[in-house]
UniProtKB/TrEMBL annotation:
One of its GO terms (molecular function) is sequence-specific DNA binding. The keyword Phosphoprotein applies. Keywords: ATP-binding, DNA-binding, Nucleotide-binding, Phosphoprotein, Transcription, Transcription regulation. It comes from Arenimonas composti TR7-09 = DSM 18010. Residues 8-127 form the Response regulatory domain. Pfam families: AAA_lid_14, HTH_8, Response_reg, Sigma54_activat. This is Histidine kinase.
């Protein structure tokens, strides 16, 4: 028997010999058994003891065969412990009542006299499932505690997040925020690199100072140096008057350089000098200025490959990359998708289950930026308050998750569902999307297989 030892099983049956027989059987497998001969005694034990599984009879009064007592007891057990697995022991005459209770949430039923092997197999499966469910629940509670601790301790600038991958990013960002070393944020376009830079600034020693941004990929190479370091009048064609650069504007605060891989070679050399000395001169001037600026840079490029190709300075790379924060794409932090989608909807709008499943199946090559655009468009085009999958305008998945190639009608079995729930951290909507099912369809499948809701 594969069940964990030291689990506790409560047997509720008016026939004491049933309890004795099961107690002997389970003791051979290191299982503790509590016995009660009435519903009242059983419910009292359930309130006082840590019970992992219940085996209950359907009738308790002499000459009673309706099964109503068993139904009433089952309802009271569900009220006390909604997720506790219950096995019904019934005579064949009570089979219909037992089947009805299984539909209502009972884990299984067995006919008297029972087969020891079948009973032990059912008990083992249910105890293992209970262990997995408790582990999922504890993991979810631990993640919630960690999330609340981060939110209480740090200024996260209103960031919406739920995925453990994002928690690791935020923990590192907040940990390094109070130092003044340069930080390099890597990750794909649209993933939220600037938001992470804002969080580093908000929790730094210079949080009261300016937060200045420059997208190095949005300007022609000949103007980037002027943007960074400023320029005197006449320093270049069109420079009719002197202008302040980003380093001057960020003095006493933080400068965020996005798409740092687009910085031209001359700008790279000057940036390296500023990082080393804190000094620079405006274009067209020999007079140096001294600044104290925390530099945070970001890129979606392979800077190591650019170094090998000779288009990015290796010494600058090591100056910028004292601490690297790697931001995963949205597809690798799936628990962030639905909370972010809800944030991007206007008040009064909500997601239908089919829309939620579609969002979780989509690969999001454009990351958070794409999700925001999809939700804003859906809110404009949806006829009602509830957003449906058809309102999203997403392409259908090439091969929906959870189906077997060439057999799209195949339903996932118990093991597949349990693995999907484990990967989803117990989030049924996410597991359903992975399996290509609606949330209701997954709940129905879980009920048929006796899988407890997380």
């Amino acid at each position: 028997m594969r069940a964990a030892s030291n689990a506790t099983i409560l047997v509720i049956d008016d026939n004491p010999t049933v309890g004795t027989a099961l107690e002997i059987l389970f003791s051979l497998h290191d299982l503790r058994t509590l016995c009660a001969t009435s519903p009242e005694e059983g419910l009292a034990l359930l309130r006082d003891e840590a019970v992992d599984l219940v085996i209950q009879d359907m009738n308790f009064t002499a000459d009673t065969t309706s099964g109503e007592e068993g139904q009433a007891l089952f309802r009271e057990i569900r009220a006390l412990r909604p997720d506790l697995p219950v096995i019904l022991m019934t005579a064949w005459t009570h089979l219909e009542s037992a089947v009805d209770l299984v539909r209502a949430g009972a884990a299984d039923y067995l006919a008297k006299p029972w087969d020891d092997r079948k009973l032990l197999a059912a008990v083992a499966n249910l105890l293992e499932l209970g262990q997995a469910t408790r582990a999922l629940g504890e993991r979810a509670r631990s993640e919630r505690r960690q999330r609340h601790a981060l939110e209480a301790k740090y200024d996260l600038r209103g960031l919406v997040w739920a995925d453990p991958a994002m928690e690791r990013v935020l923990s590192l960002a907040c940990q390094v925020a109070r130092s003044d070393v340069p930080v390099l944020i890597t990750g794909p376009n649209g993933a939220g690199k600037e938001k992470i830079a804002e969080i580093v600034q908000a929790n730094s020693l210079v949080r009261e100072g300016p937060f200045v941004t420059l997208n190095c990929g949005a300007l022609p190479s000949e103007l980037i140096e002027a943007e960074l370091f400023g320029a005197e009048a006449g320093a270049y064609t069109g420079a009719g008057k002197a202008r302040e650069g980003k380093f001057e504007a960020a003095d006493g605060g933080t400068l965020f350089l996005d798409e740092i891989g687009n910085l031209p070679p001359a700008g790279q050399m000057k940036l390296l000098r500023v990082l080393e000395t804190g000094r620079f001169a405006r274009l067209g001037s020999n007079r140096e200025k001294q600044v104290k600026v925390r530099v945070i840079s970001a890129t979606n490029a392979d800077l190591s490959g650019m170094i090998r190709a000779g288009s990015f300075r290796e010494d600058l790379y090591y100056r910028l990359n004292v601490i690297e924060i790697a931001l995963p794409p949205l597809a690798e932090r799936p628990r962030d998708i639905l909370p972010l989608a809800a944030r991007f909807l206007p008040p009064g709008r909500s997601l239908g289950d089919d829309a939620a499943s579609a969002l979780l199946r989509h690969p999001w090559p454009g990351n958070v930026r794409e999700l925001k655009n999809v939700m804003q468009r859906a809110a404009l085009l949806a006829a009602g308050e509830r957003i449906g999958a058809g309102d999203l305008g997403l392409p259908p998945p090439a091969n929906p998750a959870g189906t077997i190639a060439g057999n799209g009608d195949a339903e996932p079995d118990r093991e597949v569902i349990e693995q999907a729930l484990a990967r989803a951290g117990g989030v049924v909507a996410q597991a359903a999307a992975e399996l290509g099912l609606s949330r209701q369809a997954l709940y129905r499948r879980m009920e048929r297989l006796g899988i407890a809701r997380p």
